Amino acid sequence: MQTRRRSFLLAISQLILTGVTTVPLLTSKTSATGALEGAHYLATGELVSLSEQQLVDCDHECDPEEYGACDSGCSGGLMNNAFEYALKSGGLEREEDYPYTGTDRGACKFDKSKVAASVSNFSVVSLDEDQIAANLVKHGPLSVAINAVFMQTYIGGVSCPYICSKHQDHGVLLVGYGASGYAPIRLKEKPFWIIKNSWGENWGQNGYYKICRARNICGVDSMVSTVAAIHTTAQ
Question: Which residues form the signal peptide (predicted)?
Answer without folding.
Answer: 1-22
